[in-house]
Design a protein that fits this description.
single chain, alpha/beta, two-stranded parallel sheet, about 20% strand, globular
């Protein structure tokens, strides 16, 4: 069993990953800017507490992310600390299709991958498709609209619990470089998921599929956000809705 530091361990995928790692018998440290039970105080933005956090660690699982350009600086700082400490395994979660979908957030993700792969730190890189939770957030954010807007794009959402299973397997193993992408058990489209979501929620708002201009939409519509091969995940979006809204899957 290993001593593992998890950044972003209180986030959407971080919580189930930390739980899985502990159930697997690992000693898990959760890096956080906050103070609290089970948390190790440290800040990726300033570097404060990072050296202390990685002391005696075998593996770092980097799950922390934000919707800002700070993520690149966070990775740069983390690589310096991890490299200086001689840590033998850095695990990074990334997103399927970021090299095909021209979006600023995805460009940052690509740069983060590049920084890691060109460093001397032994690593494993896993790209996953979008989480069920993100679909729920995108649709839920439209609560004041009279309709549900759903871009007509292909999507293969995956449960965070399934991603946590794979991350636990990776963190317990040896550095493997770029690993096969993973996605959920179903490839579908966002309007179909929106219709299932509104039914589970009991909404009567019509779903309006959208076709948008631009390279990003064309890439999504062409399936760039889907993983190739057989889906890794077991939990479907219907399973997610059953838990989320208390309806039958």
């Amino acid at each position: 069993m290993r001593t593992i530091l998890v950044t972003g361990g209180t986030g959407t995928v971080g919580r189930p990953t930390v739980e899985r790692l502990r159930r697997a018998g690992h000693e898990v440290r959760v890096l956080s800017r906050q103070r609290g039970p089970g948390l190790l105080t440290g800040d990726l933005s300033t570097g404060v507490g990072l050296q202390e956090a990685v002391y005696g660690v075998d593996t770092v699982v980097h799950l922390a992310t934000s919707r800002s350009h700070k993520d690149i600086a966070h990775m740069q700082r983390l690589l310096v600390v991890v490299g200086a400490a001689g840590i033998g395994h850095l695990v990074l979660i990334s997103i399927v299709g970021i090299d095909q979908i021209p979006m600023p957030y995805y460009r940052d993700k690509l740069e983060i991958e590049r920084l890691m792969t060109e460093s001397k730190v032994p690593y494993s890189l896993l790209r996953a498709t979008q989480f069920h939770n993100l679909v729920d957030e995108v649709l839920g954010a439209q609560r004041f609209l009279p309709v549900l807007l759903a871009p007509a794009v292909k999507i293969q959402p995956i449960a965070v619990e399934d991603v946590a299973v794979r991350l636990t397997e990776i963190a317990g193993g040896s550095p493997a470089g770029r690993l096969p992408d993973i996605g959920g058990p179903e490839q579908t489209n966002l309007p179909a998921l929106a219709r299932a979501w509104k039914q589970a929620k009991g909404s009567r708002r019509p779903v309006v599929p959208l076709r948008l201009p631009g390279k990003a939409f064309r890439a999504y519509a062409g399936g760039a956000a889907c993983a190739s091969g057989t889906g890794y995940g077991r939990r479907t979006f219907a399973d997610f809705l059953a838990d989320r809204f208390g309806v039958s899957a």
